[in-house]
Amino acid sequence: MSKDNKIFELPTGWAWSILGDITLKVTDGSHNPPNKEVFGIPMLSAKNINNGNIDFNNGVRYITEEAFHQENERTNIEAGDVLLTIVASIGRSAIVPEIIKEKFTIQRSVALVKPCVIPGKYLMYAFQAPFFQKIMEHEAKGTAQKGVYLGTLKSLPIPIPPLNEQYQIVEKLEEIFSEIQEANQSLEKAKKILSVYEYVVLKLAFEGELTKEWRNENHPNSAFQFLSDLAVERKSKYDMAVSRKTKVKSKDFNYDFDFSAHKEINSWAVAKLDKLIYIAARVGWKGLKREEYTSSGPLFLSVHSLNHGKTVKFDEAFNISEDRYAESPEIMLTLNDILLCKDGAGIGKVSIVKHLPTKATINSSLLIVRGGTAFDPDFLYYLFKGPEMQRLVNDRISGSSIPHLFQKDIKEFILNVPSIEEQKQIVQEIESRFTVIENLQNAISENRSRSEILKQVVLNNAFSGKLTKQDNTNEIGSDLLDKIKEEKKKYLKNQKELAKSNPKTIRVMEEKKSIIQVLESSVAPLSAKEVWLQSKHKDDIESFYSELREIQDKIIEIKKDTESLLSLRHEN
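User: That's the sequence. What structure does it adopt?
Assistant: Structure tokens below.
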């Protein structure tokens, strides 16, 4: 290995090598995967490989037994082999365990690395080390989907300590990583506890428990009386509007709402949301065409604006014209509007408009909820975020493909109503506790980030000789490389002898035919895929199409249903 390829100085007794020189095989999976099957043998892709783990549950492709044997002839995956992702999600690695739960093969996005003498786990951890990750990122080529070519992969540098030290490094890494994993599991447990605590806070808030002492000290006004006065006030406005022959909007004069006194909390009432709140949605408004989106103008919000916590964010909103905005006055946003997602995967998400950078409206997946004089806006936000309302959302979801929440379901919701002054106090009690929860959650996230940084530091130290004591034996890395070279020769010689003694292997070797030879030996037309698999281009689809273009004047293409069959053109 040249000095230019040395990444950093190694300790005495270590040596640099390249991946192709210290492995028996470096290959990738199928470039043209067989047809998918409902059941069968797994064919894994990059998404099934995580650092240290092979995931058989993440969208596995299944193939037939016959297809597996064809694919496995080249890869021959065995315990101790290392899998490395080389397309799209580059650099994730895992080792094939000693006890393989089920046989499997791989697709193009995964490389198979078969170690020689060196323990597979040493290579796996070397692949995860910062220096190797950086090299792979630099060497990845492509535009739409970047990848590392096999030739490049084989030439990538690997630091080689004496064999004893390699085992020590693996043992030390696993000891440290086990401790880090235990710490992360504790952090995840704490995160779940905080989530439960958040649920409990909201539950107690709307049961009156958080403000129990406050009520005893402050004797708030009766919510029952407050709602009675509100009904009288709205009825008075309605009568006045009628007498003046003013056009009446029912939403402005909803005075016949149902409510009663709370049985346990004297100052609270019990009421349905129907007619206490105003709900607006986009109704009878035709959807926007692509050309109707503009570079400036009023904002058009979707559920994405509700993904950032309590306050609505406008960064991901689109712009529309003033004319389209003006078509629906009822869904023009105002300060303190509550936005609730009523459709799709985001159903139940809720945020509040705390600032309005410009005019804005909503798309059809959202509802606007306004509490008017009956509710403090922040209280209403937490009400919709609370467990009872979310349970309603989950219970009332209808539709199998696109979940939907109807306005009538919300209006039928029965809630405990405190006075406005107690609503504000409830908001304070919730937010003081949520501040503590948020600080703890941030601390958990920071510690998770630190643990990832620690892993990178540990890996960096491991492969620069700073994690373990140097080996005291006379063996040095260069001696090990010589040993690997000899073992590799023996392996390749053995493979050749095995091929000679194995009829199946002989047949495979003999079947390295050109496209013309494949078609000449067939009594009937063959599909392009069958020709490819029987030809010498089986492992290289590009060379197959290259030869196909060269001989296209000698071939006839026959259409059969949706399949193309190839046959030789016979001269008259």
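Residues 3-161 form a domain with the Adenine-n6-DNA-methyltransferase TaqI; Chain A, domain 2 fold (CATH 3.90.220.20).
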